[in-house]
Amino acid sequence: MKRIAQFYGLIVALAVTSPVIAELRNVPGQYATVAAAVEAAQPGDVVEIAAGDYDISNVRITQDRITIQGAGRSSTILWVPSDQTGFLVLASGIIVRDLRFESRNTTEAKYGLVTVYASGELELSRIETVGGRNGLHVSGGSLWVTSSRLSASQKSNIIVTDGGKAWVERSELAESTESAGIDIWMSGSSAQVTDSVIHNHNQSGVSLSEGGSARIFQTTIANNGYHGASVQEENSRLDIESSIVTGNRHVGIWTFTGAHATVTNTAITANGSWGISRTENSGDITGTMDVNHSLLWDNRRGDTEDFILSSSNVQADPKFLAPDNYIFALLPDSPAKGAGRDGKDIGLYPEGYATAFVLPQQVDQAKTPGVVRRQPAPSRPRGRKLALVIGIEQYSVANIPKLKYARDDADDVARFLTSKGYSVTKLVDATATLPRIRTELTKLANAPPQDQIVFFFSGHGSDESDPLGRGRGYLLPVGADADQLPATALPLAELQAVVDNTSVERMAVLLDACFSGGQKSVRTGRQGIKTPGEKDLTGGLVFGPGKVSLFSSRDNEPSYEAAEYENGYFTYHLIKAWEEGYQEADAVYQKIFEGVTQDTDNAQHPRRDYDRTEGVTAVY
């Protein structure tokens, strides 16, 4: 891997600043309390909290780019007396990982456990919340929640107000005692929930009001005490796709008072009242809905109230494999087979959803009712190691900016994988055409189960929706035209199809590409090509057992290139982790995340997606 001896500092608006050395602040070693460590922390510092119980009453986080690291959510407990506030996040770039927040001492909570206020930005990963008036309150700020469990709040597990934004993925929202799983209200407030479970709340699983909006994708909404999703009042909007809405006490999806819901590729079954309804209690029709390519069945009062389904929908027993155990894979004779958009199953995960109410590494599956324990795959003869490695710097159409180090990324990844016994097909610049990429992907899709595959791409991405309106974005081959992406670029949905259809048991997808639409900076940002469309991009890729994906940044961020490394930051730290002997997906991801966030001053946050219930998942 190439390096330049001179250090190129971070440059903002032509001003050069010296690198800041992050400091590790230990609790209770150096600091007796979490509050003291947080107050002393400076931008870039890490507050490391050992196992134990800690009172965090009224802790205010005012410095940007602070990471708070626990010893695990069953080990590091941050508790709040129910009559006090917990964390108040007023700064940006705050990261909290591997701990539990909980409310104690009194029966009625007055405040939330964590509040993200105004322009505050908070990322929570592998955390748990228990109790609080609201578990997490986003009031005008931004919140990201991944691989976490939020439960037992007095009101809502997440409430988003005052124009706040929330992104939730691979998480469980459960058992709030008085209100909804996630409550979004006020115009400009929004949430996106992906690959998650929202269940057993006293009221609705999802509640939208006063102009709040939500996008729900590949999520199960089940067994809530009122509606699955309640969308009320003018300008409130719900977009739900590829999800399951089942077993809720009243209506599966209810719109009224001028609200609107769009329902696509979703199964709405066994709810206690109507499957879908757009009426007030008085019977006046006041809400609107678009329902397409979905399945409705066995809703107690009927599948629809005052709504005529289009012919693209199915009203029949979906023939789920084991719905009582929340396994929604389809039996071979299911009427939903092939009925969904693009021939995909209606509202279903590619491999079914066997652990609906169980987070990775949270419980012992063998002791958990309603969870099917997968048997290990039978041993197979050792297969081939195959890699498709793509790097594009010299885009041929003028409206796609050129890059500096994407070809170096491809060269370095190919060199490393070759040293590990991979047969590598490398496509760089002029050879990385759309037809050639598709040809090579087809070969990978047809590989036998015993083979293992790595797909690596370094280049541009785009946030444009595909022709069917799904904002899953594109990877841009060498001949991509920003004005004609559907005809000239590779949809991420096509990459998803390869992941879904290949029989190989181990596959890694590694994307050093930007989908944010942001402009280049002096760090040489890997630009996302800005086009109209939604921002549900790499979050729309779904990876089952044995399949790993690592993405260089969040959907709303650039992916930077590094002059000091002559690589993208993501690729540099990926190879560095490999060279240091890291192979398990969790370990590789942590090394990449720590390196990239430190090098970019928290401007870029790598992401991951893989099934951590299957034990060790190797990247190479």
Automatic annotation (TrEMBL):
Domain Caspase family p20 positions: 383-464
Residue stretches of biased makeup (Basic and acidic residues): 602-614
Pfam families: Beta_helix, Peptidase_C14
GO biological process, one term: proteolysis
Region (Disordered): 599-620
InterPro entries cross-referenced by the UniProt entry: Beta_helix (IPR039448), Caspase-like_dom_sf (IPR029030), Caspase-related_regulators (IPR052039), Pectin_lyas_fold (IPR012334), Pectin_lyase_fold/virulence (IPR011050), Pept_C14_caspase (IPR011600), Pept_C14_p20 (IPR001309)
Source species, domain of life: Bacteria
Gene Ontology MF annotations: cysteine-type endopeptidase activity
Protein name: Caspase family p20 domain-containing protein
Natural source organism: uncultured Woeseiaceae bacterium
